[in-house]
Amino acid sequence: MGQDIAMETQKTTSGGGLTGAHAERLSSLVTASRASVDRETGLALYRDMTLGRRFEDKCAEMYYRGKMFGFVHLYNGQEAVSTGVIGAMKRQHDWFCSTYRDHVHALSAGVPAREVMSELFGKETGCSKGRGGSMHLFSKEHHLLGGYAFIGEGIPVALGAAFTSRYKREALGEAGSDAVTAAFFGDGTCNIGQFYECLNMAQLWKLPIIFVVENNKWAIGMDHNRATSEPEIWRKAASFGMAGEEVDGMDVLAVRAATERAVARARAGEGPTLLECLTYRFRGHSLADPDELRAEEEKQFWAQRDPLKALERDLVSGGLATSEDLRAIEKEIDAEVQDCVDFALSAPEPDGSELTRYIWAED
Hints:
By secondary structure, this protein is of the alpha/beta class. The protein has helices spanning about 20-30, 40-65, 80-85, 105-110, 115-120, 155-170, 195-205, 250-265, 295-305, 305-315, 325-345; strands at about 10, 30, 95, 180-185, 210-215, 220, 220-225, 245-250, 275-280. About 40% of the residues lie in helices and about 10% in strands. Helix 2 crosses helix 11 (about 325-345) and helix 3 packs parallel to helix 8 (about 250-265). It starts with 9 loop residues before the first strand and ends in a 17-residue tail after the last helix.
């Protein structure tokens, strides 16, 4: 393979002995293609995923030490989705809309780790000026349209961004307006009205949007397969005549390839895609969740599919990196994460006199 990880047809094996619909779907999933990456891109993907993992681990440490407050929902285990999708799009050109599990989406979109951590500490130097906290990260500069505390809230916002992109191009004559929007949400969101209404409108108007379902099997404590009459979410796209695809969400190269296909369709004016990524969160729903509902066997099955370890195997076996290269990246990331904590702890609190600032638009 030399300098590239070649595109290949691959059948995912389940392993681990775990039974259940989610595992069975993975065992039968055939990934049509995996993205080809060179050394530079492969290392960039590994760095982004490592930053997400180590950042979240540090958040847990700060929360349990009483330095961080409020609701905090971590992303551990799902990094291949954020990195795979956002890494295949254009930063500061395309748009990204998140959920309440938004820290890693923000980092992948390019929001500096210092600004994200500062926001989690409620500091003025945060990307939302300390007003948003963990669930409401926002950065106009980095085209992050926000995190949202209630499920489905962000989907209509993302739809509006996609409509704006098409309107500028076709109504205002801006030829360079080809931005694509990625709307992230979980499996629990796919049973509410906003999901269906937005899919209908997106397909009706052929809007450049990717609906990214991060199906991590659990909606808080509800098993996905007990909550919906059609557990294969990607199939719901057919009801609207929309492109739909199912992908191994623990494989960053598979996610990247699927996103590249969806982006190409969107930029060509062929409309939206419903992309279902089968993934898993390694921690409980939030840091206040003791995570006693999920079977230990299930957790172990998914731990064996750790997306970071899978990418490391790809990079090393493909001759793109050595274990020493990857350990060096991890060391750099650890220093970056510690720096952002130190920065956030020493940053100023928002000025009390500005309590009502940012509530209304400013001239």
